[in-house]
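Appendix C reproduces, verbatim, an entry submitted by the partner laboratory led by Prof. M.T., so that reviewers can inspect both the input and the predicted structure.
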Amino acid sequence: MSKVIFHSGENIPLELHKVRIVQKLNLVPIERRLAAVREAGNNTFLLKNRDIFLDMLTDSGVNAMSDKQLAAMMESDDSYAGSETFPKLQNKIKELFGMDYFLPVHQGRAAENILSQVFVKEGQVVPMNYHFTTSKAHIVLNGGRVEELVGDEGLKVTSDHPFKGNIDLGKLNALIAAEGKDKIAYVRIETGTNLIGGQPHSLENLAEVSAICRKAGIMLVFDASLLADNLYFIKTREAACKDMSIREITRKIADLTDVIYFSARKLGCARGGGICTNNLDAYMKMRELITLYEGFLTYGGMSVREIEAIAVGLEETMDEDMICQGPQFIEFMVNELNKHGVPVITPAGGLGCHVDAMRFLPHVPQSQYPAGALASAVFLVSGVRGMERGSISEQRNPDGSEVYSNMELLRLAMPRRVFTLSQVKYAVDRIVWLYQNREMIGGLKFVEEPKMLRFFFGKLTTVGDWHEKLVAKFRADFGDSL
């Protein structure tokens, strides 16, 4: 991995690419940001891009493509059936993962839908290290339930454990013994666990989980959407893997799993996804749903231009200099915030910097959604759009009672090859100022609440007039500054 220590002694991440195309950003006045966040119902998903300065909502579909990806898109073959483009991606999957069968889908949640429809039956359970919102929703819709078996370290906000995304092997063995093989649809491992701070799992843990599953005759499904970050952490944090290439680690991971699915909006820096396996029976069961829900088997709801880009993007993921920048920028942001006392998830994970809203806003009860309130406040004072990853991202119990998340996090995603270090420093500066004035931030309450995936569409209002007070304090401290 490329690492540069400056003469001053600072450990500053270095961009190993140059910018050749730029896109203009807007930094609108705080008064316009106030109007915008009200119009959006304090839901950062509903903000308009024209009002956003730095979009740290997600890394999904917003990563910067390389020159080689853009060039490859010009070679695409847009035949409905028999396209010459599809085999390029299919062959790259075979080369990297060693899997013979590949099913294209338009994005990761489409893969989750197909997997859940085919393999999850009423009353079954899907054990996993930690759930993701859409994966859990699809499992529940098909009559199953999720059991989270992440190790105890995974739920500690501050820790020095390098692999907080590991499955607890004792919990997995106990669940298999209690439920029996037939009650378990499959075991799912999410690489770079999204909802607990982008925390990785180790190759050793995956191997141990794989051995348990194979002994019990249970299928192991691997969500590889955040594989790039996890590969970096395995290479740099797992002693046994330090001398292995990224390509070798990737193949080891694939050999331990039965089915791999991914969102190429994250893995591959394009828009699409796929399911791959060496299990012919599983492939045949899923194949007919591709044509029903996604499209023909050689495009699966994707543009052939995106397929060309994904094939190149997967190859670029094998480049250590490509996959290191995201985690290194995230680590820089985490360390800078931590220096100023801002509570963040440690150690720094992948995907983004995660701020602990419960420690940031201890005076705001979970019933008033502190992570959502913090996302609203950060946008208000900076124009930086983050994402609530807390109780708003859950959904209510059937009886209407609230489900409170294990963590209340503000996720500040770090799309790959998108931001400069000065932009990251700007975000840090505004968040530090907000932390120094945190007592001014209040809670939120729903005024429009969908039954499912409410974090996408729901609208909330402030409890009290804390927005206005925060704007007044900002103007007193920053004057005419944006």
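The chain has two domains: 30-59+322-478, 108-263. Additional entries are available on request from the coordinating office.
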